[in-house]
Amino acid sequence: MSRLPERTEALVIGGGVIGNSIACLLAEAGVGTVLLERGALGSGSSGTTAGVVRTYFPGNALISSLAVRSLAAYHAFTERTGTDLGLKRIGLLVLFSDEEQVQDFRHTQAAQQAAGVDVELVTAAEAARLNPLVDERTVLAAAWAPEAYAVDPAAIVRGYATAARQAGAVLRTETPVTGIDPDGRVHTAAGSIRADTIVCAAGPWAGTVAAMADVQLPVATYPVEMLLTDAPGSAPHDALPMTMHPSSLRIRSWGDRILVGMGRPAPEETRQTWLQRVSRHLGTTYPALAGKGLEHGWSGDLDVSPDGMAFIGRDRSRPFFYAAGFSGQGLCQAPAAGEIIRDLVLGKESWIDTAGLSTDRCLSGSAEAG
């Protein structure tokens, strides 16, 4: 393996969809950029999701605004990078099982629409029409957001990585960071490199990487497992929308099967007990799936923040930037996150007020916050 360059203007740590978006946009802005990834590109959280990009995030119009901007970038992605993302519109259906959830939607709908989200309240009968597997007797109403698309996460990573290299960025895989000195020297098994600016986009390892630089980044890891089950004979030929239930159960079509997600076993809960719990919720909401076997699809770790919203910002005392804690929503926000970090690094005014994305909101009063 060739040694690292001795110096770079910007060093991005993390080679998932977030890190590659940042590296691409920095390099295209003329910033000398090196990206370090501990494994293969896209091998972390980027490959752990259900492969859907959407614009509606219930209760958080700020996340939705990032997602709206990101979706626009994805629609232009093929022309911009030459990589086809295979976008297929499937829509997002969020089921409500009690009146409080319906009222919460009504109170936040205007803010969502102001953020550019196309979302409406539909009846239980309409929800069952949009997803024929839904038992409308278990649903009070639902939110319907048509702008949700199935996508290949690996294609997003590949497209950004290719564009980053074409713009002059150096991308190094199998190069975990082992230390960060106060002067910006970053150590790896392949040698050391001094960076004028460091960007932490290391997903589940972001907190560990930040700690090497004596920066507090309150990101935790959350293991998830995606399950697969057979589609019933009554399932429509068209793809089912991504459908989310208040229990955290979510399903969508996955080829000729159905993808099922519901987090992970709770503390002290065995995997078998968790699978039984998932199966019970599945059979209640979707009777045609009752008794269907659940098989392991894939699993991995997500990087999560205390409030479920990403941290995108910079440390107050040094040129250390961060984009982490996306809580399973990184695919939906990567283009916008890349733009925000690029503008912060360049000292340019961002397209959005980034104050609410800083770690300040979770580290109030801490000198480490940025």
Automatic annotation (TrEMBL):
UniProt keyword Lipid biosynthesis, yes or no: no
GO cellular component, one term: cytoplasm
Keyword tRNA-binding: no
GO molecular function, one term: oxidoreductase activity
Domain FAD dependent oxidoreductase as annotated: residue spans: 10-344
InterPro entries per UniProt: FAD-dep_OxRdtase (IPR006076), FAD/NAD-bd_sf (IPR036188)
Gene3D superfamilies, per the entry: D-Amino Acid Oxidase, subunit A, domain 2 (3.30.9.10), FAD/NAD(P)-binding domain (3.50.50.60)
Swiss-Prot/TrEMBL keywords: Oxidoreductase
Pfam families, A to Z: DAO
SUPFAM superfamilies in alphabetical order: FAD/NAD(P)-binding domain (SSF51905)
Designated name of the protein: FAD-binding oxidoreductase
Organism annotation: Streptomyces telluris
